[in-house]
Amino acid sequence: MRTLAEFILRGRTQATIVAVIAAALPLLFWLSAATVALVTLRKGAQTGAGLLLWAALPALGWWMVRQDPQVMIILVMAWSMAAVLRSTVSWVNTLFSGVALAVVVSFLLPVLVPEVQKQLTTAFADAYRSISPDMVEQLGDRLDMVLGSLVAGAFAASHLLLTILSLMLARWWQSVLFNPGGFRQEFHELRMPPLYAAAALIVLLVGPMVHMGALGIAPIVLVPLMIAGFALVHGIVAKRGMGVQWLFAFYAVAIFMGPSTVFLLMVVAVIDSWFNFRGRVSKQ
Q1: 129 CB-near residues (< 8 Å, 6+ apart)
Q2: Are 106 and 155 spatial neighbours (Cβ–Cβ below 8 Å)?
Q3: Spatial distance between the Cα atoms of 246 and 184, rounded to a whole number of angstroms
Q4: What pTM does this model have?
Q5: 86: which of 20, 78, 93, 133 is 20 to 30 A away, CA to CA?
Q6: How far is CA 216 from CA 62, 104, 155, 191, 205, in A?
Q7: Cβ(167)–Cβ(95) below 8 Å
Q8: What are the Cα distances from residue 152, in Å, to 21, 32, 113, 157, 235?
Q9: Do residues 3 and 177 lie in contact, with contact meaning Cβ atoms separated by under 8 Å?
């Protein structure tokens, strides 16, 4: 991966080749997004925007031919968040910008891919009617609206997560080449501020009482908390010098437990925003 990063930064032609080919090939859009992000982090938003325009050509092809705007969305979000990270040198601000972009994407979903949202909403509605007919009866005519919001929110949240992972790859590349250990330190110290944790709880607990459309924002605001939860685990393991085997054990449990582990991490991340567990942990 280091060799690839060096090739990307060798010149505009090399970066364009990687970004365009990765965007054109199935399931490699994350590499194209990471390439755009790396160039933006290293050479600035203007240079990154030029590379984004080239990568957007195959992304536009996916959108027009396959009705799949995923590549375009992630490329634009990766460039935008990389520009924020370069200017602020703050992962918290970068995640805030990602949440804002994802909320916009969730509202634009009916315009971007109306047929996809309609099909997914219908499928979820049919499944929900067989699982919980009583709840369906209570929601009545609001069922499609509620499920439509959840589908849009889940769609945007998944794109936000993929963008963050691509941006982290780009930041790791930059760290390996120019600042060894820099990304590791940034990630280990990542902690969401108490105000964000409080706002997330309000959206989750109070938002649906005010308007059911708030359910669509819930999956989006949870993504930074999930990232912060993983950062907390990595930070504590590193601070106590526990060794990489503990991380392997943690991820093995996470894969086995599935969503339960992710939910627990988000809860711990909310608590950590107030109590700063890493600050209370001493080295072995």
Answers
A1: 136
A2: yes
A3: 16
A4: 0.92
A5: 20
A6: 26, 11, 9, 24, 13
A7: no
A8: 29, 24, 10, 9, 33
A9: no
Taking only the tens place, the pLDDT of each residue in 164-192 is 999 999 999 999 999 999 999 999 999 99
Q: What pLDDT digit, counting tens, does each position of 39-65 carry? A: 999 999 999 999 999 999 999 999 988
Q: Between the CA of residue 136 and those of 72, 94, 125, 140, 151, what are the distances in Å?
A: 35, 38, 9, 6, 17
Q: Is residue 143 a contact partner of residue 128, using CB atoms and an 8 Å limit?
A: yes
Q: Which residue has the tokens 């505009």?
A: 12
Tokens (6 digits) for 131: 């699982």
What phi and psi, each to the nearest 5 degrees, are found at residue 69? -85, 5
The domains of the chain, with CATH numbers, are 1-188 (1.10.1760), 191-284 (no CATH)
49 neighbors 86 (Cβ within 8 angstroms): no
Q: How crowded is residue 252: how many other Cβ atoms within 10 Å of its Cβ? A: 10
Please tell me the distance from the alpha carbon of residue 133 to that of residue 30, in angstroms, as a whole number: 40
Integer Cα distance of 62 and 41 in angstroms? 26
Residue 84, both tokens: 């924020």
